[in-house]
Every structure is written in structure tokens, then in C-alpha cells.
Amino acid sequence: MTIAIYPGAFDPITNGHLDIATRAAKLFDKVIIGVFDIPAKNILFPTEERVELVRQAISDLPNVSVRSFTSLTVDFAKEVGAKAIVRGLRVVTDFEREFEMALMNKKLSPDVDVVCLMTNLQYQFLSSSLLKEVASMDGDINSLAPKQVVAALMKKYNRTK
């Protein structure tokens, strides 16, 4: 069985993330979405809520599961028996950062490969940060995130749409 992890902050998960997870689910026997517990950025949703939002969003993907982690990504991969780390690429700057991380991960754990999937064109602009910004200004995010995420964002920002 080939296991892959798809790590990230997922604050919150977007339809772009779901697109990558869905495509990864077709490539690997099992995909574990790893929600990083202590990212080095401002987080809107606590870890438990991010995990639950991901869990709800992937409920129709039988070979995809979710759990939080606090270690280095390659250590998380080893812990769950993963042979690959899945990453999504949207723009050139994503590639530069992912390339650096892939080389470091290869140095730390040579037997774990990084698989980068190009984003679907309809989500090329989408990030969790941008999603939160639009939601905070009462913009329409219904086509950008799962309905549970839209509801959670509207609640966080006391919005009505």
C-alpha cells in the first residue's frame, strides 16, 4: 500500500486544497492530510477545528483521512509510513519555496519523495489567506470553499451571507 501525506496549515481548507487531495487520492492507495498544529503564522481556527473542517470536507473520499501533527513533515511521513509528500503548486513563487523544502526534506529523509501537483486553473489565485480576507469583508466565498468552511468563516466574522 502506497501512503502519501498532504501537509499544511489548512486555515481553513479551500476548494483548491480539496482539488489537490482528490487528485492525490487517485494516485495513492491512502492519503493522510496532515494539519500542522503550530504553524509560524497567524491562525484563525484552532487545530481541532481545522481538523474537523478538513474531516467534513473529505467525507466522500474513502482513502483520505486527516490528523494533526507537530513534528517535521518528514518525521510525520515516517510515523505514518508514507513514501510521498504531496504539495500543490499555484504560482512560480510556490515552486521556489516548495523546491527548497523538497531539497531539505530529501536531505533529512532520502526515502520520502515529494510529489507536486499543479493547481486547477480555477483555483490558481486561491489561498486560505485570501479566502479569509474576502470573508472578513463580507465577500461571496461560496464557490471557493466547502459549505462547512463558508459557514465557519461567516460565524468567525459575524457575517450573514
If you had to describe this structure to a student in words, what would you say it looks like?
The structure is a single chain. The protein has six helices and five strands. It has a five-stranded parallel sheet with strand order 3-2-1-4-5, with helices on both faces. Helices cover 42% and strands 19% of the residues. 36% of the residues are buried.
Characteristic terms for this protein:
161 residues, five-stranded parallel sheet, Rossmann fold, alpha/beta
Radius of gyration: 15 Å
| Strand-pairing-aware structural class | alpha/beta
Question: The CATH topology is what?
Answer: Rossmann fold
| CATH C-level | Alpha Beta
Ordered list of secondary-structure elements with their pairings:
Elements lengths: L2 E6 L6 H13 L2 E7 L10 H11 L6 E6 L3 H8 L3 E6 L2 H17 L4 E6 L9 H9 L10 H10 L5
Parallel strand pairs: 1-2, 1-4, 2-3, 4-5
Summarize the structure.
With 161 residues, this protein is α/β, with parallel strands linked by helices. Helix content is 42%, strand content 19%.
